[in-house]
Amino acid sequence: MKRAAVVLLLIVFLIATGCASTYQLPDDIAQTDAAYVEDLQQIVDLLNDGHWNYGLTDCAADFTFYTKEQKITYHSHCGTFNDVTRRRSFTVSEEQRIAINEILTKHGLLNEAETG
Question: Distance (Å, rounded) from C-alpha 70 to C-alpha 79?
């Protein structure tokens, strides 16, 4: 009986932890340009699908992105995200890095010279 209770508790914990790791756009972003929100949502979707590693990288971030609950930095040259709030990181593929940089440049958040 104790074993079943421990397993059930572990399952509940894993489900709750998984839900807590979801990245979302901040509520106040909805009041901005719809195309901008759609583009940022693509980045949030990428964050949610990312394979995060524990610990932060040493990349010199050139963009800071705020989700609903996290501060995330991004380095456009290597495509690395650092979730400063949760102290974890991941690096996107070269194709994803180019797409992210295009979004950020399109909206004036990065200079073309910065994107590498």
Answer: 18
